[in-house]
Amino acid sequence: MRHAWNRMSSWLLPSLLLVACGPSQEPVEDTGASEVGTSAQSVLYPPPAPSSGNIVDSTAFLGPVGLNSFVQTSFTTNPQYLSFSFKVAAGAQVALEVTHGGSSMGLDTGLFIYGPKNANGSYGTTLRAQDDDAGYGQLSKVTGLTLAQGGEYLAVVSTGTGAGKQFRLVLGCLNSACAEPSLFTACDLDVATRIEVCDESVVETQGLTPAQALPQCTDAQDAHAAFVENCFVSSGAKPWCADGESAFTTKMWPVCKDFYYRYYGAGPLPLTQLPLSSTLQAAQAAGHTHCKTGENWCDESLWALNVPSVAGTTPVSLDRVAEGAFASIPALSANQNLQFERQPDLTYAEFGSHVQQFFPELVAALPGALGNGTEAAQVARFYASEPVAPGAKDYHSVYVVYFPVSHQTAVFWLIRHEI
Predict the structure, then answer these.
(1) What is the distance of C-alpha 128 from the center of its chain?
(2) Where does the source fall among the domains of life (predicted)?
(3) Which class for 378: exposed (0-12), middle (13-18), buried (19 or more C-beta within 10 A)?
(4) Which residue in 60, 120, 131 sits closest to 96, CA to CA?
(5) Distance, CA of 60 to CA of 39 (rounded, Å)
(6) Which of 15, 100, 220, 290 is the most exposed place for a label (fewest CB within 10 A)?
(7) Across 101-119, average pLDDT
């Protein structure tokens, strides 16, 4: 960080030094996927299948292991099966290795991957991958394992002769697609704090307004420094670090900048358009068909947008989201023929009653597609009418459906035609 951050180098330097020695960055050699049945030798001590059908019941569960991180512990009996959970997004490619560094000499291990955990909390008993001796000596390694389904998986490290010996299990992400996408929808609180401290310092030393100071705290060099401070640490790296610096700078960093753009009074909150999921596309298409059946009753437009926010803080207000939505959608902001007026805000149930006649599928789909399925959505409504023929009008309703926990919003523009 340049400018005001020069005087803060005393606490930044230790973080930078960890780049070279941080154990969470231990490289994992990629020698190809270790799929079930590919080991040259028989697999060492697989955990016995439990009567419950949940393999974790045949192990000693020791908690989670983070992406691009490790756990280190010791075996205490022979044989023994120690298990660790890890979470990934759909399509993640991972590597797991019992490494030479951190493991006792002469240790012989087995490695098994199960999951993902289902709605009942069971990892099942189906192996996703296994290995005996692909690692150093008689240690185990599974590399290049692609997990098409996101969720929580279970890694089991076993031994038959290792009582009293320690091992280190390293989990790495290989394709920058391991972290849940939801981790990037809001600005991490520590990243946001860094921007605020910098902005306040520039204001103090250079006599600028916060909005004028913001570019000095949010350029590419600042983004790199923020990533290093949160990810190149000996412990406690943020979960989003797993996808690497490129994902941070292209996904989360713009969210941080957009939030402070509005926070410091530089203009309306910029909302970033998101691609409509297949579920929302299908729901919109079904509603469009209802509109056109028989008479030309209505037309519609639908947008999904991310709301720049700071994780763990009070959500952005509905007023600011609505203001940003109109400013971010040219079809609304550039339409000179319509004078939209704000109507009383609605609950989600009230929004549903407004559009249920033609768009019941959309009402059902939105909470799961943009929200977490349980959060209470907030809805702003805008209304305008427009003459289209002698004695006939179009009636326009714009609904800004905001999910404050998930930091996402839908803008639904429904045009009812006077027949």
Answers:
(1) 24
(2) Bacteria
(3) buried
(4) 131
(5) 25
(6) 220
(7) 96
